[in-house]
């Protein structure tokens, strides 16, 4: 099956049985408000110069612009830059809402312990992999998730996505960025999504994220948000009131679980923040 590996400047690079071909998309897609993105399975014209059809998508993300994802690796560093749990939770929620398996990959654990992140996600059911490049610890776990799947990497600039890609597939020789000590963040070294066939699967290299961009991955309705926090699920149906929002209601089983130490306080704080954001969003806003 042919699929788009990269799109840039109106040109799309499609991997076919014969290799990668450069082509354009039919104008009808623009009229329909559809933009082909990396990961799209497509049908080409007989001469291979045009994308004639975009096959039905499993899912699609606007940022990063990629379709048919199976796994979203969310890369965070223990330091330089310090991770924002709210951003990480927004990313994991967006992935789950889109039917994608989120996997947290924590880098720079040799510089600072990752205990805080490990504790926050311990009861969430969301996999967390600690990477140690010198020993190679964690790399096989990442490879296991890539095998047979289409995967993407996301995370703030400077967390080590390109370094991780180099470790997974040295033949790609991705450019690594230098951390800006003054700003505490890295320079963007990747400017468009590009899909590579590595580790028995397909891997999408994605541009760095800013905090605001993380919120644009998916517009999750406030009523659906609770389902993107897997650790809440055991308490569904146990709240005193039907339709409990798990915020300030009396007899909320989720809040009781937080107070009892069964749900991470930082994860619950993220839920409250994301709920308020969803609640404040107007129905007509994209």
UniProtKB/TrEMBL annotation:
Cofactor: Zn(2+)
Limits of the EngC GTPase domain: 67-210
Principal cellular location given in the protein's record: cytoplasm
Top-level enzyme category: hydrolase
Compartment(s) where it occurs, according to its Swiss-Prot or TrEMBL record: Cytoplasm
Matching InterPro entries: G_CP_dom, NA-bd_OB-fold, P-loop_NTPase, Ribosome_biogen_GTPase_RsgA, RsgA_GTPase_dom, RsgA_N
Family affiliation: Belongs to the TRAFAC class YlqF/YawG GTPase family. RsgA subfamily.
Full protein name: Small ribosomal subunit biogenesis GTPase RsgA
Gene from which the chain derives: rsgA
